[in-house]
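Technical note accompanying the year-one report. For the benefit of new consortium partners, we illustrate the data format agreed upon in the data management plan: each record pairs a sequence with a structure-token string. No post-processing was applied to the example shown here.
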Amino acid sequence: MGKHARILIVDDDENIRNTMKAILEDEGYVVDTAVNGSEAIRKTQEAAFNVALLDIRLPDMEGVELLRLINDGVPRMRKIMVTGYPSMQNAIAALNKNADAYLIKPVDVENLLTTVKNQLQLQEGEREFSEERVSEFIESRVKELSIIRP
């Protein structure tokens, strides 16, 4: 997947959105942004994203609620929670709602890039595993059918 991966940044702070977008685009990623949860949900329904960076506090909903809603609609997308309000409670809530990673603002550039890269690698591994499982199922089903219908 690599450099052409699609990333959605959801944050109500324009400076943070624009900074993360510029950093990720400089690395070759295709980046879109949303200012709130409603816009993020709409965008994930209209386009496929590999990774979403979700602020934990948004004007229209809590980030963990957005995380749950997005996970229900796009379970294979990797979701990274980003917060300026780090706490054990926030981290646990995010992980319990299936966050894949957790970053603290101000986000360190190298940490951002490493986290995104790692999540994309994990996603690719999951995709390959899924394809392998489907292939194994088809092969075993063909063998079963050939035994049943000689």
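Partners are asked to follow this layout when depositing records. The mean pLDDT is 85.
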